Write a sequence for this structure.
């Protein structure tokens, strides 16, 4: 795994929804190259899934429905 893969992973860890063009600018690669690298990370199992981190107070304001 080279430095570009590691920087791409860092970008995705910070914001998994970041646009490939933004990541490409950060790692100095074309959008298509970034997309290809992300697909390889997914298919190899390095990236297993994407998740959302919720703010519980905003997602479930008081009074709670349960």
């Amino acid at each position: 795994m080279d430095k570009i893969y590691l920087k791409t992973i860092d970008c995705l860890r910070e914001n998994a929804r970041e646009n490939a063009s933004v990541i490409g600018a950060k790692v100095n690669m074309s959008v298509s190259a970034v997309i290809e690298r992300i697909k390889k990370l997914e298919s190899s199992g390095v990236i297993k899934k994407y998740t959302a981190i919720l703010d519980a107070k905003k997602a479930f304001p008081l009074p709670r429905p349960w």
Q: What stands out?
A: The domain at 3-56 is CATH 1.10.10.10 (Arc Repressor Mutant, subunit A). The chain has four helices and no strands. The chain has a mean pLDDT of 92. The CA atoms of residues 57 and 63 lie 10 Å apart.
